[in-house]
Design brief:
The complex is a heterodimer of chains A (285) and B (788). In chain A, the strands form 4 sheets. Chain A has a 5-stranded antiparallel beta sheet. Chain A has a 4-stranded antiparallel beta sheet with strand order 11-12-13-14, with helices on both faces. Chain A has 10 helices and 14 strands. By secondary structure, chain A is α+β, with helices and mostly antiparallel strands. In chain A, strand 4 (64-66) and strand 5 (70-74) form a beta hairpin. Chain A is globular and about 55 Å long. In chain A, helix 5 crosses helix 6 (125-132), helix 8 packs antiparallel against helix 9 (241-254) and helix 9 packs antiparallel against helix 10 (265-283). Chain A has 3 domains: 7-57, Uridine Diphospho-n-acetylenolpyruvylglucosamine Reductase, domain 2, CATH 3.30.43.10; 64-174, 2-Layer Sandwich (Uridine Diphospho-n-acetylenolpyruvylglucosamine Reductase, domain 3); 181-283, CO dehydrogenase flavoprotein, C-terminal domain (Enolase-like, domain 1), CATH 3.30.390. Helix content of chain B is 28%, strand content 24%. Chain B is globular, with a radius of gyration of 28 Å. Chain B has 3 domains: 22-29 and 474-620, Aldehyde Oxidoreductase, domain 4 (2-Layer Sandwich), CATH 3.30.365.10; 33-131 and 195-273, Aldehyde oxidase/xanthine dehydrogenase, a/b hammerhead (Aldehyde Oxidoreductase, domain 3, Alpha-Beta Complex), CATH 3.90.1170.50; 289-460 and 623-781, Aldehyde Oxidoreductase, domain 4 (2-Layer Sandwich). In chain B, strands 3-5-1-12-9-10-11 form a 7-stranded mixed beta sheet. With 788 residues, chain B is α+β, with helices and mostly antiparallel strands. The chains are: A alpha+beta (285), B alpha+beta (788). The A-B interface holds A 1-2, 4-5, 44-45, 187, 189-194, 261-264, 266-267, 270-271, 273-274 and B 114-115, 118-119, 122, 275-277, 638, 640-643, 681, 685, 687, 693, 696, 698, 701, 703-704, 706-707, 763-765, 768-769, 772.
């Protein structure tokens, strides 16, 4: 349980980091942030990067800022930063609600928001947040930066649109309407385990009817995504048990579930049905 | 000794004093195997395939890579039973031409550091011509199944059969027959510290010291010296602090033989620290069993006869020293459990497969047979339309001592009393009301009971009944009051978390009139401790405790003799207390420290009437004693996801005299935690090709603190009549009863759906599948059929 040998680079500035990454990326170089996913994989020797660009000393990447429309989360911001609300907006509460489901406390103190997005585990809570809220991922390399929309960013199990020399420097989440309602639910075997299915829902009420519904599902498919069929089942309806059940059923039918030795597609759909309905129920309590 | 009642004069036994071993452990001063520095580190190259012939092993140039071809003269590990049609199979310490499970050591890399050894091991290529593996025990029993070992035709390594006279007539004459098909999936004991060893050669003596994470240092010494063919006295085995064992560390790891061989070959020190992946794949498994159990009842729901077919998947080899008989034969002997049943028929088979070798794991077969038997009782209660508590009342043993159909003698116990105590404490009527109210809100609560007997502290006759060539049982304690007046007990047991340094000190302290803190219990070093069997099978407190008491009684007698001499008083007037010997009714006394000086340094004063020194030896080999308990679980089942939450756990237990209540409770708590893992979470999963899908602690799931509910304990203390300290063992009861209680509670919660959960672990996937297969309508989904 020892990683294969690697060279660790410790840049102090973003420019320096991007330069080193440009050099080492073709030689199997990877970015190291909190290391809570990468390091275990290295210990199992499932990943054997020759170079690690450790960004933990890079100035400026630890910031959270908001411009009134977007919340920007730098590459070094840890999960634990969200234990308390980071912005006076329902988004702050949403992130707080989700953060406590991420693994265990020691992991949350070290792991990073952007690191989760870069790793892109299908079960990641932050990836579900990014997909559901249509976040923008800001990728940087020595040639410049480009924004990537969530729907284009997630490409498969632990696969993203980031090029090998790109650093995910920041993620931008849209602030929510002040009257936004949200709910989150996930299912796992033990407290802190990877979610076998998770759902984040968000909507507004106008005249007692649901508008701008967002229903995200994670952990059930290779990538987290919004489920249009479930959103359609909510749109324009008054929140309530029957509507929530219909949306949950629509989500369960719409997903193309991941299967494994223990978990059939049928069971994964059961979980999707349960987590979507429970997230919706939480949104009104 | 006097009875254990308040004010009886026993000062330390029965008190929840803090553990003497803990200050070092909780301040980081514990000393573990992996703390030792070494000149060489090894990494084992393990088979990537479950079955096949080794075509070639390619090692990088210049690397030190040892294979079976290098181990000339090293014998195979060949554990032996002399009964039950046992087929001895040999295990080469490194696979010799053939591999039989994924993870079997094939070669060993030696390098200057752990990292370097792992780098080299990555480059060693093992090419195997694969053959069809046998993974499942029932598949391995099919006629024409490929043979895992030529020596064991049909893949059956042992076969136990038993049938009482008149069984058939009783069976035929019975009123109702109830059957359960139970399946227990495979587990790994997952001690916090995985295995590891450090072997160091001493050039001046030619001896090797092996420090390793073992529960039985003397047996490791015997086994390794035998396999390598050298004098046992040239090997010293040390078990330093050991981070949990649970049985996994009582079996001989082939890796330790290789380490000792390497230390002698290199004339140096060599170390191995097992990683979690290796431990989960190759560090011994347990509990992979199929059990069919049928009970024949009369019209009053009284159990008349039991018939059972036990199929135990023992893996690729037979473990040393217990042999693979440990699971099937224990299941055969103890299946009738705490119930009065006079007729019994059993077929118990150990089946060899291409999977990791089975070894004892806390409780051994009893978590499985208790689960099976307790499912049977609940099913029978349902068939007779009576309460599960009532069927137990009608069948529990209540006349003691009791001789079972298998001939086991049950000593004084409280099977019915613990049941009633638990029923009262949990308040069944209140629960049923709460269950009904919850059901009206769509929630599914359930209650489950498990009553069981826990055979503990058994000596050599019990093991001899299995025909074991290596027959454990007795223990020896050498007790010394040193010239400074401090006390040292050298014990053959090898505690690794059980708190024996404290409990044995409590027993000795009362006998010789000192405080426990002046008593050092020394263990885990074959150069220092007397030969002994180690710590396993809920035996050490009973057997080492008994040996401690015997040794202490001898020391007491000698102290009285010395005091009598020094104080010029009659021996029967001498009292030992508070570190002194007093003459009753006077103010004359002499300290034990002063007597100790006298015993070593002033022996001329004894004029030859008293032997010099102050060391006595006690040995003890008891017949065994049965603890008993009733466990109650309250669970909530989430029918939409299949998740089970254990809301509350309650135990009413009788383990005889309790030496230290805090330590006793800790044992029960830990066992229940493992039982929760067994019932709900932990499963080693092989794929069809014999690869393991659960090689880390995200996929193999021991419970965390969050999965453990509040546990309420109640005790009855029925002094054992077959244990001289009157104490019974209780190390395994927690994990024996918990799975059965939890599974019964799940079935209670789901009773309206007609599902039967008879498989462990009861994962959410399995519970949902059972609910889906249920043909009963579910009120949850508008009463539609089959959509529960």
């Amino acid at each position: 349980m020892k990683p294969a040998a690697f060279v660790r680079h410790v840049p102090r500035t973003l420019d320096e980091a991007l330069k080193i990454l440009a050099q080492v990326a073709p030689q199997d170089g990877r970015v190291l942030a909190g290391g809570q996913s990468l390091v275990p994989i290295m210990a199992f020797r499932l990943a054997k990067p020759a170079h690690l660009v450790d960004i933990n000393e890079v100035e400026g990447l630890d910031r959270i800022s908001n411009d009134g429309k977007l919340l920007s989360i730098g590459a070094r911001v840890r999960h634990a930063a969200f234990h308390k609300s980071v912005v006076e907006n329902p988004l702050g509460l949403l992130l707080t609600e989700v953060a406590r489901h991420i693994a265990h406390y020691p992991i949350r103190v070290r792991g990073t928001f952007c690191g989760s997005l870069a790793h892109a585990d299908p079960a990641s809570e932050w990836c579900l947040v990014a997909a559901t809220l249509d976040a923008t991922m800001v990728a940087k390399n020595t040639r410049g930066e480009r924004p990537i929309a969530a729907k284009d960013y997630f490409q498969g199990i632990m696969s993203t649109a980031l090029a090998e020399d790109e650093l995910l420097a920041e993620a931008r989440l849209p602030l929510l309407a002040s009257d936004a309602k949200f709910g989150f639910n996930e299912f796992n075997r033990r407290a802190g385990d990877f979610a076998m299915a998770a759902s984040l829902v968000c909507y507004r009420l106008q005249g007692g009817k649901i508008v701008e519904p967002r229903v995200g599902v994670g952990g059930a498919e290779p990538c987290p995504r919004r489920i249009a069929e479930a959103e359609a089942a909510l749109n324009g309806k008054a929140p309530g048990d029957a509507v929530f059940r219909a949306a949950a059923e629509a989500a369960a039918s719409a997903v193309e579930p991941l299967e494994d030795h223990q978990t059939t597609g049928e069971y994964r759909r059961d979980l999707v049905r349960a987590v979507v309905r429970r997230a919706l129920e939480q949104s009104i309590t | 000794m006097t009875a254990h009642t308040k004010g009886s004069g026993l000062k330390w036994v029965g008190r929840a004093i803090r553990r003497l071993e803990d200050p070092a452990l909780v301040t980081g001063q514990g000393r573990f195997t992996a703390d030792l520095p070494a000149m060489h580190w090894v990494r084992f190259v393990r088979s990537p395939n479950a079955s096949g012939k080794i075509a070639k092993i390619d090692a990088p140039n210049g690397a030190t890579v040892i294979t079976a071809a290098d181990l000339k003269g090293v014998k195979k590990i060949t554990p032996m039973l002399h009964k039950f049609n046992y087929k001895p199979v040999g295990q080469p310490v490194l696979a010799d031409g053939v591999v039989r499970f994924v993870g079997e050591p094939v070669a060993v890399v030696v390098a200057a550091s752990e990292e370097a050894a792992e780098d080299i091991a990555d480059l060693v290529e093992v090419t195997i011509d694969e053959t069809t593996p046998m993974i499942d025990a029932r598949a391995a029993l099919q006629s024409g199944a490929p043979q895992v070992h030529a020596e064991a035709p049909g893949n059956v390594i042992l076969e136990g059969k038993f049938k009482t006279p008149d069984f058939d007539a009783t069976w035929k004459g019975s009123y109702k027959i109830i059957t359960v098909e139970a399946r227990s999936r495979r587990q790994n004991a997952t001690p916090m510290e995985a295995r590891g060893g450090h072997a160091a050669y001493d050039a001046s003596t030619g001896r090797v010291t092996l420090t390793c994470t073992t529960q039985m240092p003397h047996l490791m010494r015997t086994a390794i010296a035998d396999v390598l063919g050298f004098a046992e006295s040239d090997l010293r085995v040390i078990a330093p602090d050991v981070g949990g064992g649970f049985g996994q560390k009582m079996s001989l790891a082939a890796e330790y033989v290789v380490l000792v061989w390497l230390a002698r070959k290199l004339k140096s020190s060599v170390a191995w620290t097992e990683d979690r992946r290796e431990n989960l794949i190759a560090g011994f498994h347990a509990r992979d069993q199929y059990i069919t159990l049928a009970g024949a009842f009369d019209k009053n729901a009284k159990l008349l006869a039991l018939k059972t077919d036990i199929v135990s998947n023992i893996g690729a080899y037979s473990c040393f020293p217990t042999t693979c008989g440990v699971e099937p034969l224990m299941a055969m002997a103890e299946m009738p459990g705490p119930y009065d049943v006079r007729h019994y028929e059993c077929l118990a088979r150990g089946v060899i497969t291409n999977t990791c070798t089975m070894a004892p794991y806390r409780g051994v077969s009893r978590p499985v047979i208790t689960f099976t038997l307790e499912r049977l009782m609940d099913k029978a209660a349902s068939a007779f339309a009576i309460d599960p508590i009532d069927i137990r009342r009608r069948n529990l043993i209540d006349k003691l001592p009791y001789t079972s159909a298998m001939g086991l003698v049950y000593d004084e116990a409280t099977y019915k009393q613990t049941l009633e105590m638990a029923v009262k404490a949990i308040d069944v009527p209140a629960f049923r009301a709460r269950q009904k109210a919850a059901r009206a809100q769509g929630r599914h609560l359930g209650i489950g009971f498990a009553t069981f007997s826990e055979r503990t502290g058994y000596g050599s006759p019990a093991f001899a009944a299995r025909g074991m060539e290596i027959t454990p049982g007795w223990e020896t304690v050498i007790l010394t009051v040193d010239p400074s007046g401090f006390v040292e007990a050298r014990i053959g047991s090898s505690p690794h978390g059980q708190g024996l340094r404290t409990t044995l000190a409590q027993i000795i302290a009362d006998e010789i009139g000192v405080t426990p803190d002046v008593i050092k219990v020394v263990h885990g070093d074959t150069d220092i401790a007397p030969y002994g069997w180690g710590t396993f099978a809920s035996r050490s407190l009973v057997i080492s405790g008994g040996a401690s008491l015997i040794a202490a009684q001898k020391v007491r007698a000698k102290l009285i003799k010395i005091a009598s001499h020094m104080l010029e008083a009659a021996p029967h007037d001498i009292m030992l207390e508070n570190g002194t010997a007093k003459v009753a009714g006077t103010d004359r006394f002499v300290s034990i420290a002063k007597m100790a000086r006298e015993a070593y340094h002033q022996t001329h004063r004894f004029k030859g009437e008293i032997e010099p020194g102050l060391t006595e030896t006690g040995s003890y080999d008891p017949p065994g004693t049965f603890s008993n308990a009733c466990h109650v679980a309250i669970v909530e089942v989430d029918v939409e996801t299949g998740r089970v939450t254990v809301e509350k756990f309650l135990v009413a237990e009788d383990a005889g005299r309790i030496i230290n209540p805090m330590i006793a409770d800790g044992q029960v708590h830990g066992g229940i935690a493992q039982g929760i893992g067994n019932a709900l979470l932990e499963e080693i999963i092989y794929d069809e090709s014999g690869g393991i899908l659960t090689a880390n602690l995200a996929d193999y799931m021991p419970p965390t603190a969050r999965e453990i509910p509040p546990i309420e304990l109640h005790h009855i203390e029925t002094p054992s009549t077959t244990s001289i300290t009157k104490a019974k063992g209780l190390g395994e009861g927690g994990c024996i009863g918990a799975p059965a209680a939890i599974i019964n509670a799940i079935n209670d919660a789901l009773s309206e759906y007609g599902v039967q959960i008879d498989e462990m672990p009861a994962t959410p996937q399995r519970i949902r599948a059972a609910l889906r297969a249920s043909s009963l309508p579910s009120p949850l989904w508008g009463g539609e059929k089959g959509t529960a």
